[in-house]
Amino acid sequence: MNKPNGRGWNLNNLQFPPAIHLCVTDMHTTKGCAEQFIQDVKDVAKELIKQPNKKSEGSAALYGLSQMIPDRSIVTELAHCYLNAYYDTPNNVS
């Protein structure tokens, strides 16, 4: 669910059940905000429908994959490995 986030929205992935979470604040009550959100979701849905075989990337891929693994203990280990690799800073050897 990374595409709407690129349009200025902050949607969080949820797993059980598969869903998204949107925190609504006072800013979201401004005129036209709800309509813009709905339009952005429609636009993203159209983009996704046009590319049914496109693979998920980033955190969306991690969440989708980890939800499918029945042994939850493996998910924790994989998440640690992913985050360690993501934040690893390689040494520059001159």
Automatic annotation (TrEMBL):
One GO CC annotation: endoplasmic reticulum
InterPro entries in the cross-refs: GrpII_AminoAcid_Decarb, PyrdxlP-dep_Trfase_small
Required cofactor(s): pyridoxal 5'-phosphate
Any GO molecular function: sphinganine-1-phosphate aldolase activity
Keyword 4Fe-4S assigned: no
Superkingdom, natural source: Eukaryota
Alphabetic keyword roster: Lyase, Pyridoxal phosphate
GO BP term (any one): sphingolipid catabolic process
PANTHER family in alphabetical order: PTHR42735, SPHINGOSINE-1-PHOSPHATE LYASE 1
Record's protein name: Uncharacterized protein
Organism the protein comes from: Schistosoma bovis (Blood fluke)
